[in-house]
């Protein structure tokens, strides 16, 4: 199944892009997917990075075809 | 001719809206890139009482984005200069300059006397502090944060909505400020004006307040999107029950065998506590030069590597040091950067 992933802030810098489309095994768990991306791209401070699926910030979900996932790190600048 | 005529003309505002603004009070914590433009528009709009809280002084590198200040303000208190200028913009409102840093000790007392809080800060420690003090005093707060060309905006603790801890229950050790990464003046200006807009909507009870929603903006691509924030009642109840939970961003040296000189000021984050680090803030360097050893190699650092480079040059040329080396890239380049996923199990909050 295809999912659409968006990266923000320092996560986008670690990943080297702001979005991508990935082909995942059906029913992949959200946290497993996060861990996979964290390892693949060496995303810094993963425990602080929040995840949204289809614009809702959440922790648990079995991913589905067409889901849009956002990786959101905290920012502090001002 | 009335000062507020052009906004009173709007149906949503009218005379009664102007009266609401006159009776409202806002505390701006951090009178910098976000706080300055927000303060200017709120003062212009006639918000009756505005608190301007900042312990910092105006510096040359502030002026590209903190356009409320001028070159001859350099070295003066931001809170005082801002209150003087805003008083010239609108002498009908009450302005309070607070030349203090927000702290666990003073936050609740200050928040108590204002209707809402505008976050103009640039570090996680203070954002969590604002959050907790707002929960305890039951005040809403308008949040904004910037990372380079991206920004986040939201309103927390408004009408039983989510708090900042609901969005980010766990903090990060990587406290990266605009001073360290760089920022366009317009990004901070835009966000400050958007924060002021949220303040006006709350006071006037008009439009749709960014409650429970996080707005994400990228000023270069023009893209914006909203994420829905889930309320985490346990994050709110814990603070209401046990009070402010100070977040200290501490980090460790990647290499504990070298000796370092930290020339950052007391308030700069993250703190680096180690026997191998000598702390002498730049503002007190003159009187404490004798504390710097001359018999071993010392790595001098600041937030970005710029101030420390000047310090190394100065100490070499004026005081004959030969053992100093600048840390290019600043503190982020010398702290240990644990990036593995299993790091998530470690407690990052020091209570």
Describe the structure.
The complex is a heterodimer of chains A (78) and B (351). With 78 residues, chain A is α+β, with helices and mostly antiparallel strands. Chain A has one domain: Ubiquitin-like (UB roll) (Roll), CATH 3.10.20.30. Helix content of chain A is 24%, strand content 28%. In chain A, a hairpin with a 2-residue loop joins strand 3 (50-53) and strand 4. Chain A is globular and about 40 Å long. With 351 residues, chain B is of the alpha/beta class. Chain B has two domains: 5-242, NAD(P)-binding Rossmann-like Domain (Rossmann fold); 259-333, Rhodanese-like domain (Oxidized Rhodanese, domain 1), CATH 3.40.250.10. Chain B is 32% helix and 17% strand. Chain B has helices at residues 5-8, 14-22, 35-45, 78-89, 107-112, 124-137, 164-167, 178-181, 185-204, 233-242, 285-288, 306-319, and strands at 25-29, 49-53, 94-98, 116-119, 141-147, 150-156, 213-218, 224-228, 259-262, 277-279, 298-301, 324-326. In chain B, helix 3 (35-45) packs parallel to helix 4 (78-89). The chains are: A alpha+beta (78), B alpha/beta (351).
Walk me through the topology.
The complex is a heterodimer of chains A (78) and B (351).
Chain A (H helix, E strand, L loop, with lengths): L1 E6 L1 H7 L3 E5 L6 H12 L8 E4 L2 E2 L10 E5 L6
Chain B lengths: L4 H4 L5 H9 L2 E5 L5 H11 L3 E5 L24 H12 L4 E5 L8 H6 L3 E4 L4 H14 L3 E7 L2 E7 L7 H4 L10 H4 L3 H20 L8 E6 L5 E5 L4 H10 L16 E4 L14 E3 L5 H4 L9 E4 L4 H14 L4 E3 L25
Parallel strand pairs in B: 1-2, 1-4, 2-3, 4-5, 9-10, 9-11, 11-12
Antiparallel strand pairs in B: 5-6, 6-7, 7-8
Helix pairs in contact in B: 3-4, 3-9
